[in-house]
Design a protein that fits this description.
alpha/beta; 60s Ribosomal Protein L30, Chain: A; Alpha/beta knot; 2 domains; six-stranded parallel β-sheet; 10 strands; 30% helix; disordered N terminus
């Protein structure tokens, strides 16, 4: 059974991750500690070459449904796992040259967060910051929405976003806020910066005042005047394409 340095991570409870993409990605992550895998017999026969190194129990569909709730798309497999969200910024692996980081402020929907993690990974962005308060703990919902990409992005929950921003500035990062009131709508200009941290707030509340004031500048996505705003995960995908490192 693979182990990890559990003291590195936030003190969140173990949870049941479900779905083939999420579970197979988790077992490929050397930093992920998996207590046990439960699966249907037909799923075990399909995946046994990939999961046989772990503690595996063949169970019924009723067993799985009792663990994660009826109606979840588990695809015949769940894993009881330890979370891997980091507990502070210093544990992240920063690059000396080109580096990108995402900060989510006031985004509380776990499906949105999972979708944003998936988009970040798709464009080579591998670091994301969440506030410790008013943001969800690592969960099956986030993992499922991320579709395996939770294992590809370092996620740190920090006690104070403003303090984290100050730390990033000392490391040479430019802090850019995505805001409807932003003056610059030239997303291509973002590629000029080697180190950049993009802050994305919720479509309803945006960034908090102190977070907004900590930005070096604000940028907006040009959209039709007939549309009020974009969903946070959709906006994130557009920004991540502009920031892509692939």
């Amino acid at each position: 059974m693979r182990s990890s340095r559990k003291s590195t991570y936030n003190n969140g409870g173990l949870y049941y991750m479900y779905g083939k993409h999420a579970v197979l990605a988790a077992i490929s992550n050397k930093n992920r500690h998996i207590e046990k895998i439960y699966c249907l017999e037909k799923t075990f026969l399909e995946l046994k070459n990939q999961i046989h190194h772990f503690s595996v129990e063949i169970v019924s569909a009723d067993f799985i449904n009792k663990k994660i709730g009826h109606g979840q798309p588990h695809q015949g497999i769940i894993a009881y796992i330890h979370p891997i969200f980091l507990s502070n910024l210093s544990q992240m692996n920063f690059s000396k040259d080109i580096d990108r980081i995402v900060i989510l402020d006031q985004i509380t929907d776990p499906q949105n967060i999972g979708a944003i993690i998936r988009s970040a990974a798709a464009f080579g962005i591998t670091k994301l910051i969440l506030p410790s308060h008013n943001s969800p703990a690592e969960s099956a919902t986030i993992a499922k929405a991320a579709s395996g990409c939770l294992e590809l992005v370092q996620v740190a929950k920090v006690a104070n976003i403003k303090t984290a921003i100050e730390t990033l500035k000392k490391q040479g990062f430019w802090i850019v806020g995505l805001d409807l009131e932003g003056k610059d709508n030239n997303l291509d200009s973002l590629s000029e910066f080697n180190k950049i941290a993009i802050i994305i707030g919720s479509e309803a509340k945006g960034m908090r005042r102190l977070t907004n004031e900590s930005c070096d500048f604000l940028i907006r996505i040009p959209i039709s005047s007939k549309v009020e705003s974009l969903n946070a995960s959709n906006a994130a995908s557009i920004i991540f394409y502009a920031l892509r490192t692939i």
